[in-house]
Amino acid sequence: MSQVGHLKVAMTTKSLTHVDCAFALAKQIVLYDVTIDGAEFIDVARFSGGGGGGGEGRGRAKNGGGCWMDEVEGSGNGGDRITPRVEAVADCKVIFTKGLSDLAAVKLRDAGVFPVKLERDREIDEVIVYLQRMMAGNPPLWMRRALGHTPATEASATVRRTPLQRTSEADDDDDDAAVA
Fold first, then answer.
1. Tens-digit pLDDT profile for residues 81-118
2. Residue 81: count of CB within 10 angstroms of its CB
3. Handedness of CA 51, 54, 55, 57 (dihedral sign)
4. Alpha-helical regions (H) of 79-150
5. Separation of alpha carbons 154 and 152, rounded Å
6. Which of 4, 21, 56, 100 has fewest C-beta within 10 Å?
7. Judging by DSSP bridges, how do beta strands 28-35 and 7-13 pair with one another?
8. Which of 117, 98, 115, 103 has its CA nearest to residue 15?
9. What is the pLDDT of residues 14-26, one digit of tens each?
């Protein structure tokens, strides 16, 4: 999605309705194409070995915590949970997640994906509406770049204003000449 005005977004989820899990533990990542006036579901990437809570066939600690090391060791990629998830979102511009390690943040940044860590669970629709409000207002620099607003585009907007200012200055000079 390199169309100007389109933002390809990823969100980590257990439920498919909320951003409700950490990046490395996400069993699913949903992908959307968001514009200022709409959003389109693109796809869902599914991963085995996510969701590090106690589940069937897993060890259980006395404090209620679960053991998920068996999933990491048996994941088939040397225990790396981050790389397959980064590869799944590599063509997105932003990812919303509940938790993110420093290593995951660096890998996402290197892939050109802007990570946003949410403090609490949010509905996916709520996140999309939030993005659309940002797009409609004065978006931050990362969003302007992701939307295809290059510095040249912004400079040309400035250049368009400059002739108007010069025209009015020239009009002022003409008024001075008429008075003299």
1. 999 999 999 999 999 999 999 999 999 999 999 999 99
2. 22
3. positive
4. 82-88, 102-110, 124-136, 141-146
5. 5
6. 56
7. antiparallel
8. 98
9. 999 999 999 999 9
Tokens of residue 20, six digits: 């409700």
In this structure, what token pair is assigned to residue 27?
């069993």
Distance of CA 100 to the CA centre of its chain: 13
Q: What are 3's two structure tokens?
A: 């169309």
CATH for the stretch 7-148:
3.30.420.130
142, two tokens? 């990362």
Low-confidence ranges of the chain (pLDDT < 50): 1, 51-75, 153, 155-171, 177-180
pTM over cut 0.85: no
**Residues 141, 142, 147, 151, Cα dihedral to 10°:** 50
In the chain, domain spans: 7-148, 150-180
Q: Please report, as a single letter, which amino acid is at residue 115.
A: P
User: Would you list the DSSP string of 61-76?
Assistant: -TTS-B--HHHHHTSS
Largest CA distance in the chain: 95
